[in-house]
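[audit] Reproducing an earlier prediction to check determinism. Same input, same settings, fresh worker. If the tokens differ from the archived copy the diff job will pick it up downstream; this log only records the rerun itself.
[audit] input (277 residues):
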Amino acid sequence: MWEYTDEVKDHFLNPRNVGEIEGADGVGEVGSMACGDALRLMFKLDEAQRIADVKFQTFGCASAIASSSALTEMLKGMSLDEAEKITNDDIARFLGGLPKEKMHCSVMGQDALKQAILNYRGESEPQEQQGNVVCECFGVTDKQIEDVVSAHNLKSVDEVTDYVKAGGGCGNCHESIRAVIDKVHKQYEKPQPVPKKLSNVEKIKRIEETLEREVKPALKKDGGSIELIDVEGDTVYVKLIGTCMNCATADFTLKHFVEAKLQEFVTRQLVVEEVRQ
């Protein structure tokens, strides 16, 4: 039997934002009843182009319901650019973690969100990004497998099954899944250019400039801010200020906004940690 966190149990027993939105701006549907998991996600934008309302309908297990409920709570108030950066790991983290065998439920949420945003923009996923079906039992493509292997450094067929269910049926696709895993990891073996090493003074200066130029203006819009506390090696210690301090998505802001900006404009090695006082 799987161990579920209190957050997972709460979102399963008391799911938020269940239902439909009449005249939704974006609708995304993934999975199928035949596969045992299906999710329909829809959202409505306000005049500022932020998500004002979001609802879901799902057919699946406790983890699928909890993941969908958590995702809708995370999305409220976000712009689509911010929403696009949400990963399945963010959903699992919001719930305090998911059993590895149930990670595919959080991946389904991420995929439904992607489809809903494409729907809003009147776009469809390019054929080359859809890939070719590898697992006939669950309709999983080689591109989907490549994405999760790359994002999570998966190395076994069982791990792939945990994330996208591929290989969890008849087993005829195991050899093909193994080939995709090997292909992705072979790409990792290509030599990467060595980044220029920054002096401590130059590194701190760039961090301060990036926080002022790229981070603080965005946080200020929501009544928050950020303060640089210290830099030790490649670890940047910061303190969230104002509304950001107790925000439910504070971890998401630090890792997928602040840290991403510093890695983009300073150096890829930087890691952001919050100082709580």
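[audit] rerun output stored. Observation attached for the diff report: The CA atoms of residues 66 and 178 lie 30 Å apart.
[audit] end
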